[in-house]
Design goal:
The complex is a heterodimer of chains A (78) and B (204). Chain A has a 4-stranded antiparallel β-sheet, with helices on one face. Chain A is an alpha+beta fold and 78 residues long. Chain B has 2 domains: 70 residues, Translation Initiation Factor IF3, CATH 3.30.110.40; 109 residues, 3-Layer(aba) Sandwich (Hypothetical Protein Ychn, Chain: A), CATH 3.40.1260. Chain B is built from 7 helices and 9 strands. The longest helix of chain B is centred in the middle third of the chain and has 15 residues. The termini of chain B are far apart. Classes of the chains: A alpha+beta (78), B alpha/beta (204).
């Protein structure tokens, strides 16, 4: 489990995108957690995937390869 | 000091709790003998909530629970043992969160309900006020077993001091009793007491 600290949030267009992205990251062995979009990033009701900062590039590549559309990957502090 | 003995070996849940509670009404200290850990935990929790001290001792006969009313050990001023739920001085009692489903909210879309409950338990670690106790029953017990998507969150909440109760009847119904990964297997007495003794109950 990822401890508190600095993370990246993978923001997606819908919850179904989030679930697809979660499966892809899981298959790629990238630790992640489905969380509500942090208040600091958006006030919308939505979920995103939290990953550690060092996994950002690997996650982006894995998601691109699997053709999972993402909006952006943003840093945040939890 | 009157010391009574309750032999609760071989009795089904919640009999050990009922017999112990009944005996406590007429004596200051007693020994309850049980033969399994679930009964030990249930009796211990009930007694501690009633303001008693409990010391467990494993013997050849079974698990001996030495239960004493706090008043028997301490000053006469502490003579009346109050249930924990009724005791907070400031008037604000325990906050109970009850989870009766593995999904958050009601609706046709189970996937959505699952996403919501995962997001909820993540958020619970970051907001205040936090519940004093979380009670899982019906399909909600699926959240406290191995492989649960919210297990890491529940472990962190438990480590933060939140009591987690899971309905034993429900775990049995789903064949999950030996898969519990967080919390205490509880009977309806403990569950009803946690809910009815709370100042506020929040239901998902």
């Amino acid at each position: 489990m990822i401890e508190k600290g600095s993370y990246m949030a993978i923001l997606v267009a819908s919850t179904s995108h989030a679930l697809r992205a979660e499966r892809v990251l899981h298959m790629a062995g990238i630790a992640n957690k489905l969380i509500p979009v942090p208040r600091s990033l958006s006030s919308d009701c939505g979920v995103c995937l939290r990953i550690s900062r060092e996994d950002a590039e690997a996650a982006r590549q894995a998601l691109e390869k699997a053709k999972v559309q993402i909006e952006e990957i943003k840093p945040f502090c939890a | 000091m009157v010391v009574e003995k309750v032999d609760a070996r071989g009795l089904p849940c919640p009999q050990p709790v009922i017999l112990t509670r009944r005996a406590l009404q007429t004596c200051d200290a007693l020994v309850t003998l049980v033969d399994n850990e679930t009964a030990q935990q249930n009796v211990t929790r009930m007694a501690e909530r009633a303001g008693c001290t409990v010391r467990a001792e494993r013997t050849a006969e079974g698990i001996c629970l030495h239960i004493a009313k706090a008043a028997a050990d301490q000053s006469p001023a502490a003579a009346v043992a109050q249930p924990v739920a009724a005791s907070p001085a400031a008037g604000a009692g325990p906050l109970a969160l009850v989870v009766g489903s593995e999904f958050m909210g009601r609706g046709e879309d189970a996937e959505l309900g699952s996403i919501l409950i995962r997001a909820f338990f993540h958020t619970l670690g970051e907001v205040t006020p936090q519940p004093d106790v979380i009670v899982f029953f019906n399909s909600g017990v699926k959240l406290v077993v191995e492989g649960s998507p919210v297990l890491p969150d529940l472990l962190a909440l438990r480590d933060g001091g939140i009591e987690i109760l899971a309905c034993g009847t429900c775990l049995g119904q789903f064949g999950l009793k030996d898969k519990v990964a967080v919390g205490v297997i509880s009977n309806m007495y403990a569950i009803a007491e946690a809910m009815l003794g709370a100042a506020k109950v929040v239901q998902l």
